[in-house]
Design goal:
The chain is α/β, with parallel strands linked by helices. The chain has helices spanning about 5-25, 35-45, 65-75, 85-95, 105-125, 170-175; strands spanning about 25-30, 50-55, 80-85, 130, 150, 155-160, 225-230, 230. The protein has one domain: Rossmann fold. The strands form two sheets. A six-stranded mixed sheet has the order 3-2-1-4-6-5. A two-stranded antiparallel ribbon has the order 7-8. The longest helix has 20 residues, at about 105-125. The protein binds iron/sulfur cluster. Catalyzes the formation of sulfite from adenosine 5'-phosphosulfate (APS) using thioredoxin as an electron donor.
Length: about 240
Amino acid sequence: MLTEDFMGLVNATKATLATVANDFSPAVFASSLAAEDMVLTDIILRSGLPIEIFTLETGRLHAETLAMADRIKQAYGYDIKLYKPETAAVDAYVRQNGLNAFYDSVEMRKECCRIRKVEPLKRALTEKKAWVTGQRRAQSATRAELAVQEHDQAHGMAKFNPLADWSEEDVWHYIRSNDVPYNSLHDRGYPSIGCEPCTRAIQPGEDVRAGRWWWENPESKECGLHVVDGKLVRIKAVQTSTA
Ligand code: SF4
């Protein structure tokens, strides 16, 4: 459902991002290049906020997702920074376990995510004061307690989720109203987009994240970017910037 005071929601998000830029510099935005992240990209770049935008180029992304980097360059004249996994670590994993060993067990999947996402993320966050994500509370059971501002224990810094209060309809209303470029996979049944072998299209009525690691239980469906030691961490909000 579209939030009644949609413009109030947008203005609160702009205020949160301005606070990040002013009070938590240097700050970065981890973009998955999906719809939510394009909303934040649009606000950051149109507002000229000094928040670096990067994506984790895992080596297993869809071509449509990778194409978003060029589309952002065309639309905004901005080069998204790409963080890639260490070649030696990827080679060793594939040599020992096979290219698609993540289907074999949760442990194998988490190890692949650790190599291709968690370690590059750690590099991207080095010496930063805060990072921003496009997560929303309504996306899944694992995000039900998401706050706009959290303390990220794993990385020892502030973490902002400026879209925590947004509905899916809010996201798409913003995109259509502002002519924001978006990943064409969203038009083909992919509300949530990750690596190609670990994401499938969903059926109407399914949870928006049901297509991510669909062979696992819902409780284990996070990639380690927002969890500590493989467990979900309910991080207490220290401030809610959109309040
Ligand atoms: S989402 Fe899949 S392919 Fe991508 S890093 Fe995780 S396990 Fe590997």
